[in-house]
Write a structure and sequence with these properties.
Helix 3 runs parallel beside helix 5 and helix 5 packs across helix 6. Helix content is about 40%, strand content about 5%. A five-stranded parallel beta sheet has the order 1-4-2-5-3. The protein has about 220 residues and is α/β, with parallel strands linked by helices. The radius of gyration is 18 Å and the shape is globular.
């Protein structure tokens, strides 16, 4: 883990993992040969990364989205930068928010997708809310873990988001059969627009960590 020291140490899941000796802190400029979860990645984590994770492990960049422009990603050297696909956070600060994953959630998702589910469960077990992450995302994680490569993971993600969007529209159509106030209609339209402009509009989803809100890159 590259720790930019942007977040509250008491809320940082990455630092808690370090205290349990489950991650090591890397220096800027230090090369890491495994998977690195970073927004500058061009490929999505997939089961094809299994051997890389087995041999070299995985790393995260612990930094704030609010300070992303000052984060020196170029000094975090890796031959395997990766993005994460769409997932929902279960950490207490961002519960239920798409893509707002903590460090441990990001690493756990990587281990699950690359078929190291026992390692995923080991990391999540250090947090009392850890099971909630799997409960929220198991269906998607199983689908991602069944893919052959990054392209299939992205296709699976996009199919899921398209289906979810259509289900939301169908529910909206059902509601339109009943009388509603204009304010209710405006509120629903605003929510729908906000959802469509969220993570679902991306090719795939970066992991993030806010300074105060346990969301790690």
């Amino acid at each position: 883990m590259w720790d930019m020291e942007h977040c509250d140490p008491k809320k940082c899941s990455g630092r808690k993992l370090a205290r349990h000796h489950l991650v090591k802190v890397l220096r800027l400029g230090q090369r890491f040969s495994g998977i690195v979860l970073t927004p500058v990645g061009e490929k999505c984590v997939s089961p094809s990364d299994h051997d890389i994770v087995r041999d070299f492990g995985a790393a995260v960049v612990d930094c704030s989205w609010a300070r992303i422009d000052e984060t020196p990603f170029g000094r975090m050297r890796t031959p395997h930068p990766r993005l994460l696909p769409f997932l929902v956070a279960a950490n207490p600060i961002n519960y239920g928010k798409p893509c707002q994953l903590s460090c441990v959630e990001a690493l756990a998702a990587t281990f699950y997708i690359t078929n190291f589910k026992d390692v995923c469960e080991l990391y999540l077990a250090k947090f009392k809310w850890g099971d909630s992450f799997l409960n929220l995302n198991r269906e998607l994680l199983d689908k991602y873990a069944a893919c052959a490569n990054s392209a299939e993971v992205i296709t699976t993600q996009n199919e899921y988001l398209t289906q979810a969007r259509q289900e939301r529209l169908d529910r909206h159509d059902e509601k339109s059969d009943y009388p509603t106030s204009s304010s209710d209609e405006e509120e629903e339209e605003d929510k729908s627009e906000a959802d469509d402009n969220g993570c679902s509009s991306r090719r795939n989803c970066d992991i993030s960590v806010n300074n105060n809100n346990e969301n790690k890159l």
